[in-house]
Specification:
Radius of gyration: 22 Å
Distance between the termini: 79 Å
Number of helices: 3
Mean pLDDT: 86
Shape: flat
Helix content: 55-70%
Length: 126
């Protein structure tokens, strides 16, 4: 009988967790990320921590006992560099595999050659 109670407890916990995930997915401030690679779990955890920390940093910016503005600006600039580097890495991996890369909204493909909109020609690089 105790074994049945334990398995029901696990089912209840799993069901509650599944319901919580569905509730969270419906929120406007949430994104659902499908995982295909093992590394994605680590990336999600890092991004979740980064999201919390960046939000906290911005809230403490300029307050007494908060992070000095010049230091916070350096952190935010480094954070942006890391985001751009991830975008570039994705583009380079796609290029190496012969795949086209469509950058996520808010980003541009860093490897895409600039095209003159009037003539359609690629400008010469000196």
């Amino acid at each position: 009988m105790a074994k049945d109670d334990a398995s029901n407890g696990k089912k209840d916990y799993r069901q509650a967790r599944r319901e919580r995930k569905l509730e969270m997915a419906q929120r406007d401030d949430m994104e659902v990320i499908p995982r295909r690679a093992l590394e994605t779990n680590d990336s999600i955890r890092l991004l979740t921590a980064n999201d919390f920390i960046i939000n906290r940093l911005r809230n403490q910016l300029g307050r007494p006992n908060g992070v000095p503005v010049n230091q916070a600006v350096r952190f935010l600039e480094r954070n942006e560099q890391l985001r751009q580097e991830m975008n570039r890495l994705n583009a380079e991996m796609c290029e190496a595999m012969g795949m086209s890369y469509r950058a996520p909204r808010g980003f541009q493909n860093p490897l895409e050659k600039a095209v003159d909109k009037k003539s359609g020609a690629t400008p010469a690089v000196s």
